[in-house]
Amino acid sequence: MSDESPSAETNGAVIGRLRSRLDALLAPLVDGAPIALVDYPDHANVGDSAIWLGETAFFRTRGLQPVYASAIGSHSHDALAAALPEGTIFLHGGGNFGTLWPSHQDFRLDLLARFPGRPIVQLPQSIFFADQPAAEACARAIERHGRFTLFVRDKPSLEFARRHFPCETLLAPDMAFAVGPLARQPASTDVLHLLRTDLEKVERPDGRADSPLETVVDWLDDDVRAMRVTAFGSLLLTLPDPREIARVRIYERRARARLRRGIALLSRGRVVVTDRLHGHIMSTLLGIPHVVLDNSYRKIGNFVEAWTGDLATLRLATDVEEARDQAALLGSAVTGSAS
Question: What does 11-38 look like in DSSP terms, one character per residue?
Answer without folding.
Answer: HHHHHHHHHHHHHHHHGGG--SS-EEEE
